[in-house]
What does this fold into?
Amino acid sequence: MDLPLIGDVFARVRRDYPDISASLWRYESIRRLIGHWVDDLIKETRQRIETHKPTSAEEVRALDEPLIAFSAAHDTPQRQLRAFLFQRMYSHYKVNRMRSQAKRILADLFEVFLAEPETLPPPWRRHAETSSGTARARIICDYIAGMTDIYAIEEHKRLFDLQNMI
It folds into this structure.
């Protein structure tokens, strides 16, 4: 099945569900687009695996093309969608502000845990206090990497929000 243009997917959802709300229309359109690309990615990857028959990671690295990729037919629409998303969503000032906040939160957490490992929970604290330099930094990175977004925000509040002291 060829991937219809993005606009065609939107039109098909409107045709299939004429009375759908705007939010459900967006959800269904996005769901269908993702489904198309996932199906194409799986199909193309299976064909490439069958063609190249790699038996090791070294053979995969030595290939002249990526082993996992979209088909040529899906490349242009995928690039169009990517450009649209970068312009309208990923580069939006609100997203950039959230990204900036996230960077500051992670940097603050890393700095305080590195300088004050006693602020880490018990199992992480023991490992961090008995390590130094790069090893300690790696332990702290692993601890932070295991946090959900919400947990990192809450942890930052616990450590930096003076209202928590009262």
About this structure: The first helix runs from residue 6 to 16. The chain has two domains: 6-73, 95-165.
